[in-house]
């Protein structure tokens, strides 16, 4: 299978090439030229299989230039004892109609581990296949969780360096400590005086900077990405939707063929897009519910067809969703227009230049067949954490609370699977405030201990003793200085 650009500005490339490049050199994202169609019998036959078996099966449909041995090796390295449960992505039942899909059992306590334990391995195989001689520089913009997951995935990976940019005042203290204490001889972390969109936009501009890429090449470097703009980051996320559905069948919560709704707290639109791909492959997906926080950029878009980032930016208690430019929406729009790359390019140019675009009526009608949006503000988020703990003795993080609140407003009658994207302790101040009814004056690390004692929730190993680890990264730059920071780190 080959991969094409969402903007019709690139010849088809192999999976290895798409993963190695990260994004289309002239702008745009790689998407599969076609989506594999799976029969009902083939999908049903995977019921009872392990997560690793399902991963090998799905990856093999898309990575046709990788051998079965390549894929098996990558999967075995990604999903093993670095996850704290053999299930990898367990389902927890709240009631007959609501299940929580826990995606945070990897080493950094966030759903990004589900992909980023695998992506570096896919990239290393791609480098070998393409016989690349240049050192691959991984650039990452993070709203909190991607950064640490990518650092853990890529640290000490031969032939790579990873540079992570995060909003210096826009992540939780736990998230920041996770990143700045990362070891590894190829890792770099930079705080940015700006928000996530500033980080993400600058990284995209660096990818499109032809003069810089020529300088990089002359010095033996090439760029790639670990954000979900890279197909090698998005593809692994498709796997857990198949695993979740088959798990429901195994538990007799649904009969095979019953549609299941997936509810996803969404910032950059990659996680919910993976669910859409799963449905297009043949998984019985019902409604896709896109849950946003107070920034509600996607909620408004799905309601109106107008994407308008010309609005106030809010820092909220669900910071990983504090995003106004949802990059993976471009892939979805490409599909909704019947692969009209010229139209997509016009919208993306309008978004960059004017901060707004409006889709046509036909595209909006196609979107409405698949996705519905909803939002929760900060007080509603805290109220849902309290309610869920009171009703079910289950502790939600803030992002999952947004999703559960929106899910209950968008009930369709189908069983709903709510993506839980982070361990509650990653956002301990908000979670504890929700349960206690007031904010704590203790440090976040002291609050971690209080939350564990109060609820009995198991502390995640990746969050322990953060205050005792050496801070290894202290670089900070202005949002206009991100490109200069990259060049400084690389000695260009």
Overall shape: it is: globular
Write out the strand line-up for the largest beta sheet, numbering strands in chain order: 4-5-15-10-11-14
Looking at the structure, the CATH topology of the domain at 91-112 and 232-460 is Rossmann fold
Which stretches of 5+ consecutive residues score pLDDT under 50? none
Give the structural class.
Answer: alpha/beta
N- and C-termini, Cα separation: 37 Å
What portion of residues is helical? Answer: 40-55%
The largest sheet, given as strand count, sense and whether it forms a barrel, is:
6 strands, mixed
Gyration radius over CA? 21 Å
DSSP summary: helix tally: 21
**What would CATH call the class of the domain at 91-112 and 232-460?**
Alpha Beta
The whole-number mean of residue pLDDT values reads: 95
Q: Would you identify the CATH architecture of the domain at 91-112 and 232-460? A: 3-Layer(aba) Sandwich
* Portion in beta strands: 15-25%
Report the count of strand segments: 16
């Amino acid at each position: 299978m080959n991969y094409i650009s969402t903007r019709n500005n690139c010849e088809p490339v192999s999976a290895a090439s798409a993963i190695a490049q990260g994004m289309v050199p002239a702008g745009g994202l790689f998407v599969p030229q076609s989506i594999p169609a799976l029969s009902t019998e083939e999908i049903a036959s995977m019921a009872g299989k392990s997560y690793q078996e399902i991963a090998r099966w799905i990856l093999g449909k898309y990575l046709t230039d990788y051998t079965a041995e390549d894929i098996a090796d990558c999967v075995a390295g990604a999903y093993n004892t670095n996850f704290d449960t053999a299930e990898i992505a367990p389902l927890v039942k709240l009631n007959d109609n609501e299940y929580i899909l826990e995606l945070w059992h990897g080493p950094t306590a966030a759903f990004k581990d589900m992909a980023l334990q695998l992506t570096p391995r896919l990239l290393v195989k791609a480098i070998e296949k393409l016989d690349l001689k240049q050192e691959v520089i991984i650039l990452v913009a993070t709203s909190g969780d991607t950064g640490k997951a990518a650092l853990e995935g890529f640290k000490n990976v031969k032939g790579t360096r990873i540079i992570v940019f995060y909003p210096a005042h826009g992540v939780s203290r736990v998230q920041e400590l996770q990143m700045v204490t990362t070891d590894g001889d190829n890792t770099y972390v930079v705080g940015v005086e700006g928000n996530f969109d500033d980080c993400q936009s600058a990284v995209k501009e660096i990818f499109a900077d032809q003069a810089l890429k020529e300088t990089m090449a002359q010095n033996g470097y090439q760029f790639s990405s670990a954000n979900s703009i890279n197909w090698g980051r998005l593809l692994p996320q498709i796997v857990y939707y198949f695993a979740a559905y088959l798990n429901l069948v195994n538990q007799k919560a649904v009969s095979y063929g019953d549609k299941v709704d997936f509810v996803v707290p969404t910032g950059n639109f990659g996680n919910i897009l993976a669910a859409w791909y799963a449905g297009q492959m043949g998984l019985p997906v019902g409604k896709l519910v896109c849950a946003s926080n107070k920034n509600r950029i996607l909620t408004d878009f799905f309601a109106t067809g107008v994407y308008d980032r010309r609005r106030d930016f809010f820092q909220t208690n669900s910071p990983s969703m504090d995003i106004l430019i949802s990059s993976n929406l471009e892939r979805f729009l490409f599909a909704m227009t019947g692969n009209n790359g010229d139209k997509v390019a016009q919208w993306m140019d309008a978004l960059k230049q004017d901060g707004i675009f409006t889709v046509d009526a036909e595209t909006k009608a196609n979107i409405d067949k698949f996705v519905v949006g909803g939002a929760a503000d900060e007080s509603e988020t805290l109220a849902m954490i309290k309610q869920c703990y009171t009703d079910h003795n289950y502790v939600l993080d803030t992002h999952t609370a947004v999703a559960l609140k929106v899910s209950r407003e968008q009930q369709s009658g189908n069983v709903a699977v709510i993506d839980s994207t982070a361990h509650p302790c990653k956002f301990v101040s908000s979670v504890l405030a929700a349960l206690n009814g007031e904010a704590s004056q203790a440090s976040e690390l002291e609050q971690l201990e209080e939350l564990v004692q109060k609820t009995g929730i198991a502390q995640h190993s990746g969050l322990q003793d953060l205050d005792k680890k050496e801070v290894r990264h202290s670089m900070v730059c202005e949002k206009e200085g991100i490109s200069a920071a990259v060049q400084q780190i690389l000695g260009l």
